[in-house]
Write a structure and sequence with these properties.
This protein is of the alpha/beta class and about 425 residues long. Helix 2 runs parallel beside helix 3, helix 3 packs across helix 4 and helix 6 packs across helix 8. The chain has two domains: about 210 residues, P-loop containing nucleotide triphosphate hydrolases (Rossmann fold, 3-Layer(aba) Sandwich), CATH 3.40.50.300; about 200 residues, Rossmann fold, CATH 3.40.50.300. The protein is globular and about 85 Å long. It has 17 helices and 14 strands. Bound molecules: adenosine monophosphate.
Length: about 425
């Protein structure tokens, strides 16, 4: 079924047409009819980034809201400012034909303009938790007409320590008017489910899981190079020149190293990429400029900390480099590589791995239930590794060894090679 066959306002169909979107993705096919049909259903959806979940909640929300009521009718909570801008961009575009107004609410910029927009009658608020609480405490926002509360990337929100803030908001937003809770999360940790159970008052909860399809991971070609820390930078530059990525993100683990790596790359005459930086210490304005430059391809290389790992949707990213392998939860790796292969476009993810990080590679492989192939920086390295791991001797080696054996010592088959070690 296509969107044109859905029972939704023509204004929404036109907006989708303008975006070039015609056929629903899995998560959209499952979530949209559920949200459209029941008054009291809540949605608990497990869907990874890049699966089209923003439209999965935005389409029914825009369908239900009342443009003539100039009050906040939907609150969408997101973990980062970047995701806030992205979701705002999608839902405001989708709502324009229905004359619905949206506002993006996040910290690091003037609060007054956000207050003005809410006062002017915005119906949809896309917000990071801290700033929303700020607005609430100033009596600049009321939840009395709210029909939908969305938690996007709920697991990430908890990871970032936002649970008390989320609780604070939900406690107020979910009382009296009983809005519907739409919760989207890449993983379904018990803590995420608890939020739903705590606030849904045991009403009808529809669980949706499209995570098994795992589009992001399956469309992405992944490999790693083993790299000595001493030579890592040079190996990285060689890889860049070999791969010639058109647009790529380089993930590192610390803000300091992100800054230094960028400086190093800018000075490096061997490369000609325009290099940008995205890390948590930058001002909101700087982050926005960087993201817009990256989107518009003014910057082709973005050095980033995990601030950039979730939710960002930049379709043209061809490569992800893990200059540092993520630490902690192996799932972070999946989120990072999810910045490429958006909507099943092929992408490449390359990790530079130090010897002691091999454990992490194994944990990531176990988590994904999929191998990451090892590639080699030099031919010698490949030969050495092959020799080390070879189970069967080469024919030449076998012949040589057999020459020195007595008859009774002959192995039954070539595969019976234990004597060769
Ligand atoms: P999301 O998972 O919401 O970040 O969406 C990922 C990307 O998929 C965005 O670039 C969307 O514009 C795109 N997208 C979402 N739904 C569809 C669809 N039904 N058909 C084609 N592209 C889509």
């Amino acid at each position: 079924m296509k969107f044109k066959d859905y029972n939704i306002h023509d204004e929404i169909k036109r907006a989708l047409d303008d975006m070039g979107i015609h056929t629903p993705t899995d998560i959209q096919e499952q979530a949209i009819p559920e949200i459209l049909k029941g008054e009291s259903t809540h949605i608990l959806a497990q869907a990874k980034t890049g699966t089209g979940k923003t439209l999965a909640f935005s389409i029914p929300i825009v369908e239900f809201l009342d443009p003539s009521l100039k009050k906040v009718q939907t609150v969408i909570l997101v973990p980062t400012r970047e995701l806030c801008k992205q979701v705002y961009h999608v839902i405001s575009k989708l709502g324009t034909n229905r004359r619905l107004k949206s506002v993006e609410v996040y910290g690091g910029v003037s609060i007054n303009r956000q207050i003005e927009k809410i006062k002017a009658g915005a119906q949809i608020v896309v917000a990071t938790p801290g700033r929303l609480i700020d607005l609430f405490k100033r009596n600049a926002i009321s939840f009395t007409a709210v029909q939908f509360v969305v938690l996007d990337e709920a697991d990430r929100m908890l990871d970032m320590g936002f649970l008390p803030d989320v609780d604070y908001i939900l406690f107020d937003a979910m009382k009296n008017v009983y809005p519907r809770l739409l919760l989207f999360s890449a993983t379904m940790l018990p803590e995420v489910k608890d939020i739903m159970m705590d606030y849904s008052l045991d009403e009808n909860i529809v669980e949706i899981d499209v995570s098994r399809d795992d589009l992001t991971v399956s469309a992405c070609k992944q490999y790693y190079y083993l790299s000595d820390p001493k030579y890592k930078y040079n190996s990285f530059i060689r890889l860049l020149n070999r791969e010639k990525p058109s647009s790529f993100i380089v993930f590192v683990n610390t803000k300091r190293w992100a800054v230094s790596l960028r400086k190093k790359m800018i000075k490096d005459k061997r490369i000609s990429f325009r290099v940008g930086l995205l890390q948590g210490d930058m001002s909101q304005r700087q982050r926005e400029i960087t993201m817009s430059d990256f989107r518009n391809k003014k910057i082709t290389c973005l050095i980033a900390t995990d601030v950039a790992a979730r939710g960002l949707d930049i379709p043209h990213v061809s490569h992800i480099f893990n200059y540092d392998l993520p630490v902690g939860n192996p799932e972070n790796y999946v989120h990072r590589i999810g910045r490429t292969s958006r909507m099943e476009r092929a992408g490449i993810a390359i990790s530079l791995v130090e010897n002691e990080e091999m454990n992490m590679i194994r944990r990531i492989e176990l988590f994904m239930k999929r191998d990451i192939r090892r590639y080699y920086l030099t031919r010698e390295e490949r030969e050495q590794d092959k020799a080390r791991h070879r189970t069967y001797p080469t024919i030449k080696e076998t012949k040589k060894q057999l020459e020195g054996l007595e008859d009774e010592e002959y192995p039954e088959t070539i595969a019976d090679t234990s004597i060769y070690g």
